[in-house]
Design brief:
Blueprint lengths: L3 E5 L23 H11 L4 E6 L4 H7 L10 E5 L21 H6 L9 E5 L2 E2 L2 H13 L6 E8 L10 E8 L5 E13 L2 E6 L2 E4 L5 E9 L2 H17 L9 H10 L4 E7 L4 E2 L6 H13 L9
Parallel strand pairs: 1-2, 1-4, 2-3, 6-12
Antiparallel strand pairs: 4-11, 5-13, 6-11, 7-8, 7-11, 8-9, 9-10
Helix pairs in contact: 1-4
Length: about 300
Amino acid sequence: MKPTLFILAAGMGSRYGGLKQLDGLGPSGETIMDYSVYDALRAGFGKIVFVIRHDFEQEFRDKIISKYEGHVPVEVVFQDINTLPEGFKPNPERSKPWGTNHAVLMGKDAIKEPFGVINADDYYGADSFRILGDFLRSVEGKKNCYCMIGFNIENTLSENGGVSRGLCEVDANGYLTGVKECHGIERKDGKLIQVVEGENVPFPENASVSMNMWGFTPDYFDYSEKAFVEFLKEHGNDLKTEFYIPSVVNDLINDGTVTLKVEQTPSRWFGVTYAADRDATVAQFKKLVDEGLYPTPLF
């Protein structure tokens, strides 16, 4: 059975100033998601599942999903603030979504095979999908065997401001021991820095960081359901606290339930964290097409 690609496309894109998931950035109006789907198909993925919000479903189907007809099976699931386990209700004043791992939970009924998880608004590169696809095929029929695609920090920086990245802590065999969330990472005066409690402090050169590109076996859904109940017991009345993938992964690693291999990619990330990133991203895609790495249009 071919692995599935699960694309998290329910985000608001607040810093970017719009629904960047639907923004045409390629030479023929391709979105970043289109390149991810194209690369995933070349890497042997057999199905695409999107998690979106109900309020832009029709626009998403018209602009995105329609172009994949005849190329790959596609399913859509929905993230909603009110989709909670029995017995829980959100604070009526809460408007913020529940986070990336809540989004992942929405795929439980649609995904029964090893699957990859990515953001809709990040370009990961063909090598990253090849590495992820190879890993997922290797764990078919297994449990508790996960991976994360690790990027060199230098390949993930923005020229338009500091970025947040998950710093990977790995053991001697390349297995993840934890992910530490770091903020405000950028190069200033030739030095790599991050912001910690309002102060600029050094960030390790050539560090491996997470760009939210994960590989899971389906048992991850069951662990996530249990973890979400515990999260809601503690934070269910909060207005902003979110249920993140790294938090669940860290707990599963720390209690010895799972192993997670960090698979390094040579690919360079780019995306549209800030509105000012758009022109550079358009230029990057044009360059890749001009070099013959992608056709245009893709589909």
